[in-house]
Amino acid sequence: MKSVNIPSAINILTDAFGRASLAHICIDLQKNVFPEGDEMIPFYNAKKLSELCRPSIQNIWIAMATSLPLTGLDRFHSVQPDETHEPVFTKTDYSAFTDPDLEKYLRAQKKDTIIISGISAHLCVKHTVKDAMAKGFNVIVAVDATDLDNPSREAVNALYGKNVYAITMSEFESTINSAEQNAQTRHHEKIKQPYPVISSSPA
After folding, report:
1. Rounded CA gap, 53 and 14, in Å?
2. What is the pLDDT of residues 97-136, one digit of tens each?
3. Whole-angstrom Cα distance, residue 121 to residue 105?
């Protein structure tokens, strides 16, 4: 089976960032599902990933319906959505796409590439990845922001399919930092361009 290489994942990420078509989907980090969440490395990394995404990349939060007795921000651990700008969708089964409003939202926001973090790698993340791929989205799994037993690209390919991209937190951070710096450089260069000189001749 052909494995996903790093440049492919980084190129997909960079391209989507440049087109403002990238979204981060964070799955099942609420208290009622995983009471010990704050002690788990995937929770810490998913929180860091969501913070790295702000404000340039849209964070989207997925909550299992069983978590709803806890309302608002209380339903989550220290991984907190900014509910003013970051929607929370409710799923009734493993896949985040069991809430039809998720796909509608992604289409309306023109997001064609999603990076996925959260719990659990072999159930909810897996079914969300499969459904996203079937719907035509580019999918990148943040391998160390999930609870994968083996967070290697080969393991991601074996579990989710060869067309799913994999990236580590450090790769994600360096790629986004580089893309943001390049965007700022292009913006400054555009500002510094001199206005065209309009010559006028006497009548």
Report:
1. 13
2. 999 999 999 999 999 999 999 888 999 999 999 999 999 9
3. 23
Distances (CA, A) of 36 to 40, 42, 44, 51, 143: 7, 11, 12, 21, 20
Check if the beta carbon of residue 118 is closer than 8 Å to that of residue 77.
no
User: Residue 14 carries which side chain, given as an amino acid letter?
Assistant: T
53-111 pLDDT, tens digit per residue, is 988 899 999 988 765 554 554 555 556 677 778 898 989 899 999 999 999 999 999 99
User: Could you tell me whether strands 165-167 and 138-146 are parallel, antiparallel, or unpaired per DSSP bridges?
Assistant: parallel
Element (H, E) at 60: strand 58-64
Tell me the residue length of the chain: 203
What is the rounded CA–CA span in Å between residue 80 and residue 50?
9
The whole-model pTM stands at: 0.81
Q: Does domain 6-190 have CATH number 3.30.470.20?
A: no
What does the domain layout of the chain look like in residue ranges? 6-190
